[in-house]
Each structure stands twice: as C-alpha cells, then as structure tokens.
C-alpha cells in the first residue's frame, strides 16, 4: 500500500472506511456465533475403550498438532451447543485422519454423519480412504455424486432414511431438499470456499443446529486466528509428518529444452509427470505440442472440468495405474488427489494462478523420502507486479512449515475471507494487514461486550411458579448465593452445567426448581432473537422484539419457534400466539423449548 501522512485527511478517510468494513465483518461473524450459542444440543459421550482402540489402529504415530486438533474437536462434540470448528492444515499433514476421529465418535454414539466434498474426484478419494480406515470398525460408508446412476441414487436415499448408512460421502447433492436422514448430527465439509454461493448459504443455515467440522488447506495466519478468538473456533495442524521432504521449486520463462529435459529426467527414473495447463480451449494443442517435443510414443492423457466425470475418474485411475506417462490437466485435480508415482509437476502460465493454488498443486506429486520438483513456467514478456510477488513468494517458501508465510502473503495480495464464509473482498488495500487485523480484533471484542449486555434482557411474565422453599437451602446466605449464580448465567452450556450440578446434590428437585430452569433457558433462547419480552395479555402470549430487530431476524425466529404456523403478526416487532392452543402457561413455555 502507498504511504500517507498520519495526520492527513486522506489517512483519516482510509481509517474510517476500514473501520466500517471491519464492523461489517465482525457483525456477520457474531451473527453465526449468536445462533449457535442459543441452541441446546445433543452432547456426544466419550467411550475411552473404543476410541483408544480406533486411534491405536492408525498406521502412523499422530503428530502433536494432530493430537491437539483431535482433542479440541472431540471436546466440542461433548458440549451442548453445536460444534462449528474450522480445521486448517497443510497438504500431507493428516487432516482426514483427524476428521475420521470425529466421524467415529458420531458412529459409536449411534448417529449418522456426512462428508461433503466440492469435487467428484475428491469425494471418491475420501470414500477410498474412509472405507479402508473403517473396515475393521463396522462403519457403513457410502458415496454419491453426479456420476451415480438414478437407480443407485434412489437406493442410497432410501437407505439413508432407514439408517442403513452410517456415513455418506458426496458433493453438494447433500444440500438438496429431497435428502432425508434418520439422525444426522455431524457434517464434515472439505474446502467449503469452493462451493457456490447458494450452497454456502444452505451450509450457514445448517450451522445453527448441527455439528459442523470444516476442513481447509487455505491457511489462516496466527494474527487472524487471534483476532477471531472466541468467535471462530479454529484448530491448526502445522506440524509436518516425519521424513517428509521439501519440494524443489523453480520459476522460469517457457523453454522447450528445459521442459523436455525435466520430463525426460523423470522418465529415465521410471517416474511420471503432472503437467498443469488451465485453459480447456488450448489443452489439446498443448498435448500435440508436448508429443512433438517428447516424441509420439509418449503416453499423454487429458482431464478437465468440462469432461464427463466418469471419464475424468477413469483417466485419473489409469494415470495412477501407470497406463500414461503424463497427466495433462486443468486445476480440476488441485484438491486432495495425490499422485505417488509422479515426482515432477510443471505448471504452465504459473503467473495466472493464486498463491494457494500454486501451493496446493505442487504438493500433488511425490513420495515420502524422495526429492520432488515443481517448475513454474510463464510465457509473457512482462509479468504483472502481483504475479511476480506470488511467484517470488512460492519459490522462497519451499520448507514444510512455509504455509503460514504463504498465507500472510496471500492475504496481502488477495484477502481470502471466503474460508470464513463471509461475502467479503478486501477493499481497504491502503491499510496494512497488521493494522486491519488489529482493528478487527478490537471491533470483535467491542461487539461481544455489546452483545452480552443487549441480548440477555428478555423479560418473561407468565403465570408460572418458581418459588423455591426455604427448606431447600441450608441458610439465607446459601439461597442468596444460589440466585446470584443462576442470574449470572448467560449461555445454555453454563445453565446445563448448573442444572446437572444441582441434580447431583439432590435426589429429587421440586417442580418449582424445574420451572425456574425452564424460564432461564427460555430467556437465553429468546434473547438470541432479540425478544425483549414475553407476556400473557388477555387471551394471547405476546412476543415483543427490540426496535432494532431486522425482518430477517424475526423470520428466523418464526422458522424455529413457529413450525406449525400458530403465531400471528400484530406489528412489525410484535407477534402473538393464542392461549387456547395450550393447556397452561407452563405448557406453552415447554412447547417453545421443544421447538
């Protein structure tokens, strides 16, 4: 960014614009956070014997980061609020194994799970991995995608409803209206930023009432992670597996002799080559050019996104089985598909790729203990400044823990908010990234404080007795302490903990005690939708919303609490339900809590 004087009008405008942008991002994040905080959710239990057996059956030793991520994810699953955790990892760092620990816990708890992939090829890679890993544990795995036949799809959907499938792996088809599960409680999403906008919106709606584990190989800098502390739950796998070799990365202008030499060198060692050309219109021409350069006997196969997916799958399998010498492909293979018999990748027109694409692609090749090569080739005489920065960054960061440096550089060049599911493109390019993240951190903390004070003020005035006899307490001080603690509770998680604690202390709690906890639970849930008060007025129950409540928020309230369409709108910020529909005020309250 260009420099401005700190006391100049221009700098003040930049700061004002950046603060407005940061506030918008923080509010969107807090919106998701608030929805999750108000939901009472199923808590997955821990089975030490079964889970220890599953971990010990893994063929390798977990890295420290893998152990840490598994611990954080499983701890989330034990809470009574829905999990919404982002697992950030670098290529080859073992994220699928971490996700499988969550899937296995879901299975031993008698719950279904789903694994969503943005690409058909990747879905089948995951199916292969999960089928092998769970083979000894009786987990019923199935895969479905756009290449599944209509007959197979019908059978899979029926088996899902009957709970004859424990874990389903598929693409965005999961988000269709006709998909029904018997008891889906966990969804694992791979590379969510690659989904279409409408799919992302559906996934965001799921976040309020289901456990979500998102996986992303687009790394988040530690400074951004810190700025989102308490709002976005993030686990990071930054430790490379043992014996993993760095990849030698070189950048140069296109040169026939150099390209031919690099490819032939691999052929002499009986290795294959991955060649990335990201233009479908000219990919056939590139194939003919390579055949001319290397000889007609060179076996080259092509894959790209406009081909039939079954054909793409067959060609990739053929390449993996060494039927071809070169796989000439677009970026259709950039995520998840690994080629162990290819030790060199050549990326044509590398100046047109984003940093995260280049980083992902260069790790698609190679085995554990061998040297790997990545050639970044450009053709233009004058490469754009941003493209030069990307190429310099990727060449200078080839070590195994380089992804954080790449992430920070990528943020400065591109600003990838898409991995946090925010419709955002960084406009404030005049602001240094460190200042931007500092402003974001401050705004998140400010809004969290504001949310705490504003959102927990719902007053409930119903004819429900919650008077607890003096005999229940050992002293007046004990009673005062009890009510102070109860009134200070702000989350369903804390309320549930308090309830369980009192249940342990007392064999049988009076009905008034149960009523009190129902009232407190209702207050927390209704406050999340900005309901200021719930009162019984004549023959109606009246919900009155805060005057700043949006129409969208009220619509969400109705979606959750009025599934049977019993409520009626009085004004924009007032909704009523007729008392005759319920046996009593307590029955009305319990009906709300069930919904």
From TrEMBL:
PANTHER family: ATP-DEPENDENT DNA HELICASE HOMOLOG RECG, CHLOROPLASTIC. SUPFAM superfamilies: P-loop containing nucleoside triphosphate hydrolases, TRCF domain-like. The keyword tRNA processing does not apply. One of its GO terms (biological process) is DNA repair. SMART domains: DEXDc, HELICc, TRCF. It holds the Pfam family Helicase_C. Signal peptide: none annotated. GO terms for molecular function: ATP binding; DNA binding; DNA helicase activity; hydrolase activity. Residues 258-412 form the Helicase C-terminal domain. InterPro entries: DEAD/DEAH_box_helicase_dom, Helicase_ATP-bd, Helicase_C-like, P-loop_NTPase, RecG/Mfd, TRCF-like_C_D7, TRCF_C. The keyword DNA repair applies. It comes from uncultured bacterium (gcode 4). Transmembrane segments: none annotated. Residues 76-237 form the Helicase ATP-binding domain. Keywords: ATP-binding, DNA damage, DNA repair, DNA-binding, Helicase, Hydrolase, Nucleotide-binding. This is Transcription-repair coupling factor. Coiled coil: none annotated.
